[in-house]
Design a protein that fits this description.
It is a single-pass membrane protein. By secondary structure, the protein is α+β, with helices and mostly antiparallel strands. It is about 25% helix and about 20% strand.
Length: about 290
């Protein structure tokens, strides 16, 4: 007897293809979320390691935080001897280009970078008003403007005060509410890194963690946008070395935020900024 060979029918092939397509549609977003989560974890690991370097620096320099200077100087330059690899200053989720040399006249070391650092320093809550980890401005003959570091003893709540963290700021690298979205092209919280808008921060006492943030439009802020911790209790203390020192605009910015004690500034934003209308608006929180 001759055996008849039977293959798949067209209908059976179409059913198999449909099943594969359905599985792909289900699994591809899961894979994408897994990759995003992996990048977020890598970023948090960077923050923890730099936070350890920050703590070591503070102990070696009479309990004084790193300074800030003009002319291509960034806060992380002083920490490089403690963490060695410059890859740590780059967040896996921030790849905007930046061909720039750091260091200059203030140090014999020159660090060439081709993309932006992922992390900014705590200059205080609003623009150039201060209140963070740098003290009064001075002028040095070789280095130009210099902002001295802050004594650890002068920081009221080291375990609740940011040292540095995720930022979109450029060219200055800060985490200030009105600076940290300077390079962000979106207009919603949904576009933030990392998954679900969790930014990574290191605190003055050396610990690090992911914190949910939210943003909106702010007149006078760089790029017209702002970002703030979603937890009001965290936001209240996060940017302030002295919790009760009055932070004055002194003509440094055009925001509508009045002169207030540092730990009242973020509360004022929450109390006075409504949800943004669908058309956009100003001085308001994004709803999504």
């Amino acid at each position: 007897m001759q055996r008849i060979k039977r293959g798949f029918t067209l209908i059976e092939l179409l059913v198999v293809i449909a099943i594969i397509a359905i599985l792909a549609a289900i699994l591809f977003p899961v894979f994408a979320q897994a990759r995003a989560k992996a990048r977020s974890i890598a970023c948090l690991s960077n923050v923890r390691q730099i936070g350890t370097a920050f703590a070591m620096y503070v102990q070696d320099y009479d309990e004084t935080t790193p300074s800030g200077r003009s002319g291509g100087w960034e806060w992380w330059v002083e920490l490089v001897p403690y963490f060695k690899s410059l890859d740590l200053i780059h967040c896996p989720d921030r790849n905007d280009p930046n061909v720039r040399n750091y260091g200059g006249a203030c140090t014999s070391a020159i660090y060439s970078r081709t993309k932006q650092s992922g992390y900014g320093y705590n200059w205080g809550p609003i623009s150039y008003r201060g209140g963070g980890l740098m003290g009064p401005r001075t002028v040095e003959a070789n280095c130009g403007q210099q902002y001295l570091g802050m004594s650890l003893a002068a920081i009221d709540l080291p375990a609740e005060t940011f040292a540095f963290g995720d930022t979109y700021d450029t060219p200055r690298q800060t985490i200030a509410v009105s600076f940290a979205l300077d390079g962000y092209g979106g207009t919603s919280n949904a576009g933030f890194r990392h998954t679900l808008g969790m930014f990574n921060y290191a605190f003055v006492d050396g610990h690090a963690k992911a914190i949910k943030v939210r943003g909106g439009f702010m007149g006078g802020a760089f790029n017209g946008k702002f970002i703030i911790p979603a937890n009001r209790d965290i936001a209240r203390t996060a940017f302030c070395s002295s919790q009760t020192a009055v932070i004055s605009a002194n003509g440094f910015d055009g925001t509508n935020i009045p002169n207030l004690p540092c730990n009242q500034i973020t509360d004022w934003i929450y109390a006075n900024y409504p949800a943004c209308p669908a058309s956009g608006g100003s001085n308001c929180f994004w709803s999504n």
